[in-house]
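ingest -> validate -> predict -> emit
validate: passed (alphabet ok, no gaps, 184 aa)
predict: started
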Amino acid sequence: MNVLAINSSARTETSTSRLVVAQVVASLTAKGAPATERDLSDGVAFVTEDWVNAGLTDASDWTDGMKAARAGSDALIAEVKAADTLVIGVPIYNFGVPAVLKAWFDQICRAGETFRYTENGPQGLLTGKKAIVVISSGGVPVDSPVDFATPYVHQVLKFIGITDVEVIAADQQMTTEGRVDAAM
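emit:
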């Protein structure tokens, strides 16, 4: 089993999502699983016009800008394809996911690579994988009407074919004692 750990918190030293992701990864790698770590706080490119146009243009006609835009996306997709289990740290920022995590999802959701269009709508191509999603928040309860992060992550993972999703909630840390301990 190959593990891909994705951290999206801007906080590096005192991040709850990072702490719980590390605990999950340690548990999985203790059984001999290799792990790749991707720290999104290092930056992820946003989708650009070159990125979009590359999808509409034969690769033999790509400009240098298109090649560069897709190279980063190709690397991120390769990491996801190589993984059997994704462990994704998702702090809730202003009711949703961090912008850098949205950018990562935008980079890995590519027609013909991670999903395809069919007469019945999009079909995810990354089946047989598991995702463990660590959701942390100061006050937003996971799966509440004001939690837009958890359903978004579920939807995007389903879109690319990952339907085996487990959520670990480390939520309401500012209002409820012991939430981090419970998540651990």
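The longest helix spans residues 64-82.
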